[in-house]
Amino acid sequence: MRRLLTLSLVVSLGACVAGPPPEIATPVPELPQDFAYKGDAATNTSVADLLPAQDPAYQTLSSAALAEGPTLAEAIARVEAARAGARGAGAQRLPNVSAEGSVTGTRINPNQFGDGAAAGGFIDTEQVSYGANLVTSWDPDLFGRLKAQERAALARIDSASASASAVRIALLAEIAGSVTDWRVLEARGEAIQGDVEAATQLAGLAKKREDAGIAPGFDRVRAEAAASASRSRLAALNSERVRIVGRLITLTGQSAAEVNAALAEKGSSLRQTAAPASLPSDLLTNRPDVLAAASELAATDAELAAAASARFPRITLSGVIGLLAFNPSNLFDEDSIVGTLAANVAAPLLDFGRIEAEIDGAAANKKIAFAAYRGAVFQALGDAEAAYGLITASDAEAALAVQEQSELERAAKLADTRYRAGLSNFLEVLEARRAADASGERAAAALGRAQRARILLWQALGGDSSEG
Questions:
Q1: 274: left (phi over 0), alpha (psi -120 to 50) or beta
Q2: Beta carbons within 8 Å of 80's beta carbon, 6+ residues apart
């Protein structure tokens, strides 16, 4: 009865070391019913259609990045580390069994047993013992501390996996954007080359009229200057090309030759896929960064529970069974069998606020995780709204740019026809040509921005995770 009262007192005092963990509300953020900037027309387009998935350059480079890209490899390694931590946390809940063997030599002073012990020869001053033990210990985790730590470790696996998925989506989006930029450069180059050819033809016509004595040499010079300006714009595209190649080398882990070979494959033309329908609530299950933040919140909740369980006693059961002999030949005799069973109870009595400080720190970490979760949710909402709005705006810009190109090219052809027929002067032709110059380049750039907006929407909606 005395022992039972002592144990009850220890448990009671341990429970009083710190108060219960604080309740921290973590409600799911309220999101609007629909995206404000989503287009009116409902379509059956899938999220995957927003990427240039049919472009051979994208197929080659994205496969290389997923297989050998350094950024994704780092994220996958973090998942493996989280899994190892979860296995370790789970193993803590199971008994720990170990085996040991020993040979121990001991020399003692017999005088410690009396003055006559040494003279009488009753004490052997030197002994050698041989032992082999099987040792086991187990924490039954009555108050759930180890279980809470395992829950936190498992949640960290989910967080690391979602973070790896976010890295993968960002990687694919960046490659898709780079390939799109390359196709835009190709379209811009073709448009500028057309400007060069038109200006060169105009300079040739001015040269003929100059040689015939019906036009001043100034007309030819101005036409040649226009052609040189277009060639300068064409040469400037090379600096943009090398930047794209450099970015793709970093993303894919491929050499410049391999990247250039992939980009050299004939790609699909820039297209404007309709934006797919989606709801803001889908972001909570599709966006990997939101899922990672939610898993981190669950981990901090479990860590708070583990910190709170430190208020209660820890009970450890242990046992040892083994062999002990003072002669190797007697090691396996029945008398050599030894054993020990023990139960240990350790409870905090006076820790001067240490456990309470740990609980407060865990509670603060949970508040931080919840704020980060809310931030991730509204970041996702803002990204999706902006992407929908960008698609609408860039589509309108692209349509006007294409229309402008068509009208200016038509005006330039009409001015050229009138000049050849003697109905207008060279200045009118030159001004019409100058207005038409770069209109094709502007149209290609506008179409590229429209395609880029679709890639942003793909990433904002959670990429291909929303397809699963």
A1: beta
A2: none
- What six digits make up the tokens of 185? 């450069």
Task: Collect all residues with Cβ–Cβ distance below 8 Å to 262 and sequence separation of at least 6.
Answer: 56, 57, 60, 61, 64, 254
Q: Packing angle between helix 256-264 and helix 56-68, nearest 10 degrees?
A: 150
- Report the distance separating Cα 79 and Cα 73, nearest Å: 10
Listed residue (26, 25, 19) closest to 360, CA to CA: 19
Low-confidence ranges of the chain (pLDDT < 70): 1-20, 40-44, 111-123, 214-215, 465-468
Residue for token pair 């589509």: 395
From CA 450, how far away is CA 94, in angstroms rounded? 57
Confidence (pTM): 0.81
Confidence (pLDDT) at 468: 39
Separation of alpha carbons 366 and 363, rounded Å = 5
3-state secondary structure (DSSP) of residue 238: helix
> CA-CA distance, 402 to 221, in Å (whole number)?
30
Q: For the segment 49-106, what is each residue's pLDDT rounded down to a tens digit?
A: 888 888 999 999 999 999 887 888 888 888 899 889 988 988 888 888 898 888 888 8
For domain 28-93+144-312+354-467, give the fold: Outer membrane efflux proteins (OEP) (1.20.1600)
- With a CB cutoff of 8 Å and minimum separation 6, the contacts of 319 are 135, 136, 137, 339, 340, 341, 342
Per residue in 304-319, pLDDT (tens digit) is 998 888 888 888 888 8
Spell out the domain ranges in the chain: 28-93+144-312+354-467, 96-138+313-346
Per the structure block, which two tokens stand in for 9? 């007192």
